[in-house]
Design goal:
five-stranded parallel beta sheet; Phosphatase 2c, domain 1; Rossmann fold; 15 strands; 36% helix
Length: 372
Amino acid sequence: MVSSPPVRHAVVVEDDADIRGLLVLVLEQLDFVVTEAPDGLSGVEAVRRTNAELVTLDINLPDIDGMEVCRRVREFSDAYILMLTARADEIDRLTGLDTGADDYINKPFSPKELQARIRALFRRARTPAAPAEDTGQTDELARAAVVQQSLLPRETVRLNGYDVAGAFRPSRSVGGDFYDWYQTRDGMHLTFADAMGKGMGAALIAATVRAVMRSVADTPEIDAAFGSASATITSDLDQSGSFVTMFHARLDAPSGRLSYIDAGHGLALHVPAEGVARRLVSAGPPVGILDEQQWPASELKLEPGDSLVIVSDGVLDAHNSLEEFQRNVEKAARNGASSDDVCAALLELAPASTAEDDVTAVVVRRKPNAGL
């Protein structure tokens, strides 16, 4: 008889109902049983009552602030405490950690980054033994892997003055990662997405996302196209209780102008030929979290020698901090002779022997002599 894995409890202390709902969904995806608390005092009691192993804690609460909640929880609990704050100055950060918090994350946050931080916290303390393989799921995972592989683009992008490549390595459990691209008259469209969950369910959601995003390719404005597609996707996601993080971009090749929308992904970097790399910040939550959500489009210019690098959270999970992650991704982008080389180096940042999730990378590099 195979024993069930131990139940893990988490408490979300957050007064904003929308953010609280997002946190609950993210933690449930990590198999936590979640208790919600809209204020500090009820949060302390919830931690005591559930013997929680993880607490996400907002600093600004309507009764006592997060600092005081952290102090009180530390009197009786050794739960991991992850503080969330919209105040990112160094004093708040140091004060929060001095009160007994284990880590902090700034609002607005990426669900991907939040999950990676939580995995890192639990990984530092213990490495759980791998669960026994459920042979009854083998066929389903095999079918899901076939679906997932079919979502990857079969055509190669050949743009004058650009070097484009992608790489994908699935996990044993099969997640919802995929990327898709296709050339247009003036450049290319690119979608990079991750449907939350594992197995056939995640693969089918990913297939739906790919089909819907391709169906709006002829809509001239990227924000209108993404808004229309997300409304369709959300109606499907409502039935599964899932959500999808996405990065969607449209490149005008002659000018290097790249319009993009980031919906909860937060793992794309603009690596200029000269200067410091910049992480492209999410424009809003993942698709499927909130009804009638709108995501504003942003824009950057790929100058000769610049690169756009997008990776999945499997790469982020292999790092102990967002800073370390960004540093290593930038180094890989600058050291590769080609986009294929960069993709290979990015996958090596999350070795197959230790990676727990799919690992995916896409690189769009404008050649140094482009436009000359």
